[in-house]
Amino acid sequence: MKPAKRAAINSSAVHVFDVLRTVSNDAKPAGVSDISRRLSLTGSSVFRALTTLEATGYVSRYRNLPQFELGTMPYLLNRALLNRFELNAASRPYLGDMAQETGETVSLNARLGWYSVRICGIYGSRDIYHRDRLGELAPLHESLAGLAILAFLPEADHLKMLEFLDETGVKKPSPAAWTQSKDKIAEARKTSILTEELPMSPGFSAVAMPVRDHTGTAIASITINGPVFPSDKIPKLLSIRDQLEALIAKSPKRFVSPFAHIPANKIRLQNNKTKLAL
User: Fold this and answer.
1) Which CATH number is 78-266's, of 3.40.630.30, 3.40.640.10, 3.40.630.120, 3.30.450.40?
2) For the chain, what are the domain ranges?
3) DSSP SS3 for 156
4) What's the confidence (pLDDT) of residue 127?
5) Pairing mode, if any, of strands 106-112 and 218-229?
6) What is the pLDDT of residue 10?
7) Contact (Cβ atoms closer than 8 angstroms) between residue 204 and residue 230
8) DSSP labels, 198-243
9) Which CA distances in Å does 254 have to 105, 116, 207, 216, 247?
10) Of the candidates 5, 48, 108, 167, which lies 20 to 30 Å from 256 by C-alpha distance?
């Protein structure tokens, strides 16, 4: 193939991925002219890219309008990625027991580099559900789930995470916020739970608890998103979590993260509430 022709094909491929990335990052469906303007591409180039993406299931038309949103394929790929964590399937009976015990949505959040990612969720019997999707992620210091993991990582890893935030430009916690987080972490090491006040349920808090491997290092966390603290159910919930940790301790190699071979500083992800993007 001649270099000029190869360059044209490569350019078209790049445009397709640029368009897909734009649709993926948009909070609402986008049209051809809007995408064209933002990417500085011709309308015909954007239209061809969208036609390719629509034919392969990566985007779909929004209510048959000339606007586009993600199709089914990205979500299938996302689900396949999350299923690579052995902990996903293995944890479900335990999460189900917690959901039945509390009536609240229970989530499993795995550590992925310096992020936590929601890999499994079980709904409870109550009417109000946790509506964020599988694959939602956040830096460890930004969420209750992440802090539960940080609480059972070595102190040296806390410093490495802060260095990572500096390197990547991810917003670091202020000194006051980090001090508050460290206080939560210290308390979690004593009680094995973290709590977060819920404005819609005064006097009650959501709960997170670490899930540790045989060395005592957190590989994941469980969050219960409804008002469950304070409650006399906490000892039972911790007992269920302990059963999951016992399962992990029996087969530690089975539950090693599928991305453990990648240095944490090399894993750089989009920080948003709906998508996981490696």
Assistant:
1) 3.30.450.40
2) 3-70, 78-266
3) helix
4) 53
5) antiparallel
6) 56
7) yes
8) -TTSTT-EEEEEEEE-TTS-EEEEEEEEEEEES-TTHHHHHHHHHH
9) 26, 19, 27, 16, 10
10) 167
- Enumerate residue ranges in the chain where pLDDT < 70: 1-11, 75, 78, 127-132, 270-278
Task: Give the relative orientation of helices 86-102 and 234-250 as an angle to the nearest 10 degrees.
Answer: 160
Assigned token pair, 43: 């309308």
CA 134/CA 275 separation, integer angstroms: 8
Confidence (pTM): 0.75
Question: Hey, what amino acid is at 170?
Answer: V
| φ, ψ dihedrals at 212, nearest 5° | -110, 155
What tokens does 178 get?
């980090």
Q: Same fold for the domain at 3-70 and the one at 78-266?
A: no
Share of the chain above pLDDT 70, in %: 89
Spatial contact of 119 and 85, defined as CB atoms under 8 Å apart: yes
Query: How far is the C-alpha of 46 from the C-alpha of 244, rounded, in Å?
Result: 48
Out of 1.10.10.10, 3.40.50.720, 3.30.420.40, 3.40.50.1100, the CATH code matching 3-70 is: 1.10.10.10
Q: Residue 3's pLDDT is what?
A: 45
Structure tokens at 240: 């269920």
Q: How far apart are CA 219 and CA 86, in angstroms?
A: 12
Cβ of 250: how many Cβ atoms within 10 Å? 10
Question: Each residue of 206-237: pLDDT tens digit?
Answer: 999 999 999 999 999 999 988 889 999 999 99
11 conformational bin, left if phi > 0, alpha if psi -120 to 50, beta if neither: alpha
Q: Round to whole Å and give the CA distance between 182 and 158.
A: 10
